[in-house]
């Protein structure tokens, strides 16, 4: 009788193990998408959907120094869909202006007018076409900094607070977000003479981008705009028109693309952040970061990666 009892217990244990293997708790697969079922307050359930890799689609080779594509869900979860050297610290050029914009929005009144200094105008690059003594709003400088990657606009924004204090605020914001391998030495992303540049990783830049999407919608409203009129005034009060056109405007016609920020320096090569919507019914944002591609390749490579994600994964 004792042996029979032991056998029954063993059979029950085996049956329980088989049930656990073939019917795992807390996870459902449906329509080619992994669904992790989470309990909500009140006893309800919600499903977080992640796409699964399509084995028939080969890997992609972009030739970049580092790159990443991450799906961020509305629930704060993430899934890395593509990666290459994602933790390597590299210069990232004008992608720094996203952090510059966050510090500006945190600390400045956007309709305040400031006077452009000679030092700001002498910053390398002429895309902003600002003039010494020109008066222009903080918001106008923000538009120029993000849309045409104006280095003189970024310098002028930092001067309002003082460059050293502004850069400290950038590093403080990085720590607040949890970017432990990211450091800033200037507000525009230009190479420093001693090559002690702004440094970050593809992964942390993706995290910074998602944080800006969730907490600073104005930044992505600007980066999702093709072109805009910005008006400054000379010392006599006459208008100085600016018409910044988004460097990434050609990608804004593509379905699903929310916006993009480009960068280039000799040390960094071409860099790019592109944000798009996931495919199918999956919710959230896809953030793509490309670091260190050749001249003229940043838009093409970013779009190529976004297109690859559509077929490389099975979406709900």
Can you give me a brief rundown of this structure?
The chain is an alpha+beta fold and 316 residues long.
Topology:
Elements: H1 2-22, E1 27-30, E2 33-39, E3 45-53, E4 66-72, E5 78-84, H2 97-107, E6 113-115, H3 118-121, E7 135-137, H4 138-147, H5 151-161, H6 163-177, H7 202-215, H8 217-223, E8 230-233, E9 239-242, E10 257-265, E11 269-276, E12 285-293, H9 298-312, E13 313-314
Task: Give an overview of the whole structure.
- The protein is of the alpha+beta class.
- It has a single domain (66-314), classed as DD-peptidase/beta-lactamase superfamily (Beta-lactamase, 3-Layer(aba) Sandwich), CATH 3.40.710.
- It is 34% helix and 24% strand.
- It has helices spanning 2-22, 97-107, 118-121, 138-147, 151-161, 163-177, 202-215, 217-223, 298-312; strands at 27-30, 33-39, 45-53, 66-72, 78-84, 113-115, 135-137, 230-233, 239-242, 257-265, 269-276, 285-293, 313-314.
- The strands form four sheets. It has a five-stranded antiparallel sheet with strand order 5-4-12-11-10, with helices on both faces. Strands 1-2-3-13 form a four-stranded antiparallel sheet.
- Strand 10 and strand 11 form a beta hairpin.
- Helix 2 (97-107) runs antiparallel to helix 4 (138-147), helix 2 (97-107) packs across helix 6 (163-177) and helix 4 packs antiparallel against helix 5 (151-161).
- The longest helix has 21 residues, at 2-22.
- The radius of gyration is 24 Å and the shape is elongated.
- The protein starts with a helix and ends with a strand.
- Mean pLDDT is 89; it is low at 20-47.
